[in-house]
Amino acid sequence: MAASEESVSRIDIPSGDRNHCCDARVRDYGVEILSWARGVEAKGVRSHPPKRYFEFYSLCQLIDGEGIYAGCDEVTRAVPLGGLILSCPRDLHRYGPLQGHSWKEDFITFRGELLDHMRDDNLLFSGLFAGGEKRRLLPLIEMVQNPDPVSQIRAGMMLVNLLLELIQGGETEDPATDNTGNKIQELLTRLRLNPGETWTVEEMADFCDLSTSRFREVFRQRLGMPPKVYVDRLRIRLAAECLLNTRLPIREVARRFAFPDAYYFSRRFRQLMGCSPRDYRNHFRRGAGCG
User: Fold this and answer.
1) What is the largest CA-CA distance in the chain?
2) Which of the two ends of the chain, N or C, has the fewest CB atoms closer than 10 A to its terminal CB?
3) Which residues neighbour 150 within 8 Å (Cβ) at sequence distance 6 or greater?
């Protein structure tokens, strides 16, 4: 299946050096690092990178060259040098060099129940984040190459700390900013727990005690996308889980997650997930993908 007549690639197996040191005891801690690579180079051969999704988590950092990133919202952004791209399982995205340009990255792939819980609680989401000049993944890669269980667990905790730092935008010095962050986190929790509620941007801004313009600015800085795009993506992801975990008719799923009708829901679902709700339910219940 494809959105807008473009094929979507499904990536099941991560590339790079594979981690053979992570045993069941380490996986019980909730984070398993699958693979990594340093200084991977690519040359752009297309007008834009292909659209795809992973069946695992991935974090990469651009260390040389230039390129673009677009997530489920399909908004294309230039990737700054040092920029970090986090991709969550089954989130559509495209990133890489444009035609004729070079791209060099470090990356790491991973999975785990702790990460899934963080994602469910809106503490983890796909996006483009500032990384600075430092190669943020190198200490983690060096740690995970040690075969002993303690090093594997430490590497997992280093990864979680890095992810939280990226998502939360690092430590803040202004107490007012901290309070704003707390209000936004409270809003995100409410949106997730009550996905059938409808919110205007003005209502969300009032909830966070901000003007509408300031709320839009802060929300985009923290979450990498406008508020309405975030809400749309959240509802689609929760609807996707509902499709797999229940036998509700598609029109009922649309109603439960505050979409005006089944037609609009199906169209928006296809745009973000790469296939229709019906195909998503059928394919993933059989263990296949939408690609």
Assistant:
1) 54
2) N
3) none
